[in-house]
Design a protein that fits this description.
The chain has a domain at 49-142 and 149-162. Helices cover 51% and strands 0% of the residues. It is built from 6 helices and no strands. It has helices spanning 2-33, 51-61, 70-73, 85-100, 119-138, 154-158. The structure holds heme C (2 copies). Residues 51, 54-55, 58, 74-80, 92-93, 96-97, 100, 102-104, 106-108, 113-114, 120-121, 124-125 line the site of one heme C.
Length: 174
């Protein structure tokens, strides 16, 4: 009985050592190839998602192609096709993430940017369509507005929140 327990513990220890070796191998592989390949998961391994690092890696990966149309540089652009690739990353960082108060992982699995695995990505596309309709069809037809071209964008509604407010925040208690 005593002997069998010892053998099991040895077995478990061996498995632990082997899997540690293979995990570090995968991480090294990722780090080496991430600068050249958009699809490669960012060199972040199992660490918590780091948005600055993800953006830095993407900017490195598209270096020299920033002014080309996004559709030529990226794999699955359906709406922002003609936008310069460098600007698309700014839209992702400021126009989308910041204005909703989220990071990239709200709509993407990091490193698999072209995939459609999160419904929030589809919602974001439909929201672009809604914003376009409001800007081009609805606002334009409201007479006597002050601006020549009144405009809304994601921030107008979201203001740093996933769910736009229906009520003003409570007045601070004084
Ligand atoms: C609110 C959802 C949302 C957030 C947040 C978001 N994205 Fe996106 N992302 C999209 C959508 C939608 C597209 C596709 C746009 C289109 O089809 O025109 C896209 C496309 C991309 C692409 C092009 C992928 C390809 O090869 O087709 C990259 C790269 C990307 N996003 C990176 C990021 C990064 C980095 C962040 C965080 C800083 C981020 N995104 C945050 C919704 C989002
Ligand atoms: C006219 C107001 C308005 C504008 C403009 C707007 N949104 Fe929204 N958005 C909403 C509302 C309302 C919801 C639904 C929230 C809920 O579930 O109750 C929503 C939900 C979303 C969601 C789903 C969030 C979640 O995780 O549940 C995403 C993603 C989103 N919007 C992205 C965008 C993006 C990107 C833009 C700019 C292209 C944008 N929205 C512009 C009003 C707006």
């Amino acid at each position: 009985m005593q002997k069998r327990i010892t053998t099991n513990w040895l077995g478990i220890a061996l498995v632990a050592v082997l899997s540690a070796i293979s995990v570090s191998g995968i991480l090294n592989g990722r780090a080496a190839s991430s600068a050249t390949n958009l699809v490669t998961p960012t060199e972040q391994g199992d660490k918590p998602f780091d948005q600055e690092l993800a953006l830095a890696n993407l900017r490195k990966a598209i270096a020299g192609q920033e002014t080309k149309p996004a559709a030529e540089v990226f794999k699955n652009i359906q709406i922002l096709k003609g936008m310069p690739a460098g600007r698309l990353l700014n839209v992702m960082e400021l126009g989308y993430s910041r204005s909703l108060g989220v990071n990239c992982t709200h709509c993407h699995i990091p490193g698999e940017w072209e995939k459609e695995d999160k419904p929030t990505k589809q919602i974001a596309r439909d929201m672009m369509g809604m914003a376009k309709t409001i800007n081009n069809d609805l606002l334009k037809n409201i007479k006597n507005l002050k601006s020549a071209s009144p405009t809304i964008n994601c921030t107008t509604c979201h203001r740093g929140e996933i769910k736009p407010a229906l009520n003003l925040p409570d007045k601070p208690k004084t």
